[in-house]
Amino acid sequence: MLDYDEEAERYDASRGGEPRAAAAAEAVLGLLPPGTRRLLDVGCGTGIVTRRLAAGRDGLRVTGVDRASAMARQAAARVPGAVVLADGRRLPFRTGRFGAVTSVWLLHLAPSEEDAGAVVAECARVLVPGGVYVTTVDKAASHNVGSDIDAVLAARPPSPVRDSADLVERYATGHGLVPVGEARFPGHGQGRSPRRTIADLRRGWFVTLPPGDPLTEEFAARLARLPDQDRPRPDPVFALRAFRKPADPRPA
């Protein structure tokens, strides 16, 4: 698993930068109800998407949360006065505070299904009735674009999946949320080349292939034999799911 405090400085450049962030923010904003005034971005990372969410709709006040201090510092520089250092499983906000909550590229990092479910539970808790939770799903599967790199990596030991669409829906409905929409957006600049994939492999990108492990080096050698070592393969396409917290029933 990557250390996201160490990863903060190169995070944006290695993951598509502003074009990818713009695509993510546009897709998220398209799933929000009209008139949303407060949004919480859980696992905001460097704030590159958070800033675009804040700028993308008039009157929308955005707060970011991240548990990695180096990430949160970068986010605070982008969204001054609106970033909190906290764990998504224990959000430091009152119940029913936000009209929308997002978690973009977060649930796949959860150590267990229980942890992923705890994040979704907290997101549901801080939503107002009628509010919407938007999250990415199936992140690892999104990176499989059917390339020669994917063919090599298909033989690696499988990683636990915490953010499959079915699991996320189960987490959400278990906390009273109702599915209301979905969207897709391109991961601009994230198409893998063999050389870049080898570098990612050796710094711990793939959970089941730890740096320095003989099996990791075996996969690196297979990747090194592929043609066009510096040619990026197609970009991934990421998936979003949206869930609404039912409004309080009106008195008869």
Task: Note down, in words, how this protein is organized.
With 252 residues, the chain is of the alpha/beta class. 37% of the residues lie in helices and 19% in strands. It has ten helices and seven strands. It has helices at residues 4-11, 17-29, 48-55, 69-78, 113-126, 139-142, 148-153, 165-174, 194-202, 214-224; strands at residues 38-42, 61-66, 83-85, 98-103, 127-137, 178-186, 237-244. It has a seven-stranded mixed sheet. The longest helix has 14 residues, at 113-126. The radius of gyration is 19 Å and the shape is globular. 38% of the residues are buried. The model has no long low-confidence stretch (mean pLDDT 91).
How would the blueprint of this fold be written?
Elements: H1 4-11, H2 17-29, E1 38-42, H3 48-55, E2 61-66, H4 69-78, E3 83-85, E4 98-103, H5 113-126, E5 127-137, H6 139-142, H7 148-153, H8 165-174, E6 178-186, H9 194-202, H10 214-224, E7 237-244
Parallel strand pairs: 1-2, 1-4, 2-3, 4-5
Antiparallel strand pairs: 5-7, 6-7
Helix pairs in contact: 1-4, 2-3, 5-8, 9-10
What is the CATH topology classification name?
Rossmann fold
- Overall CATH class: Alpha Beta
What is the share of helical residues?
25-40%
Order of strands, main sheet, comes to 3-2-1-4-5-7-6
What's the structural domain tally? 1
Distance between the first and last residues' Cα: 53 Å
**Uncertain runs with pLDDT below 50, 5 residues or more?**
none
Which range does the strand content fall in? Answer: 15-25%
The profile of the biggest β sheet is:
7 strands, mixed
What order do the SSEs take from the amino end to the carboxyl end, as H and E? HHEHEHEEHEHHHEHHE
Radius of gyration, whole Å: 19 Å
Strand tally is: 7
- Give the overall pLDDT as a whole number: 91
